[in-house]
């Protein structure tokens, strides 16, 4: 499991890394997102895992 944080859209913090860009990169590398959590008013976390069917 990997947690990745990025600024929330509502925070208006300029960022090159967004929840959507993290998700797209993760999917391209065989990971899926399973949870999103609010860290605080600025940050959000996205939990990424290897899909169950691909786990050994």
Shape, per Cα inertia axes: elongated
Q: Main β-sheet: number of strands, strand sense, barrel status?
A: 3 strands, antiparallel
Overall number of structural domains? 1
The H/E string reads EHEE
Helix count from the secondary structure assignment: 1
- In the sheet with the most strands, the strands line up as 1-3-2
Count the E strands: 3
Unreliable runs: none
The CA-CA distance between the termini, in Å, is 14 Å
Structural class: alpha+beta
What portion of residues is helical? 10-25%
Tell me what portion of residues adopts beta-strand conformation. Answer: 35-45%
- Tell me the quaternary state: single chain
The Cα radius of gyration reads: 12 Å
Mean pLDDT: 96
Brief sketch in words of this structure:
By secondary structure, the protein is of the alpha+beta class. The chain has one helix spanning 19-28, and strands at 2-7, 32-38, 43-49.
How would you portray this structure in words?
The protein is an alpha+beta fold and about 55 residues long. It has one domain. The chain is built from one helix and three strands. It has one helix at about 20-30; strands at about 1-5, 30-40, 45-50. It has a three-stranded antiparallel sheet with strand order 1-3-2, with helices on one face. Strand 2 (about 30-40) and strand 3 form a beta hairpin. The radius of gyration is 12 Å and the shape is elongated. The two termini are about 15 Å apart.
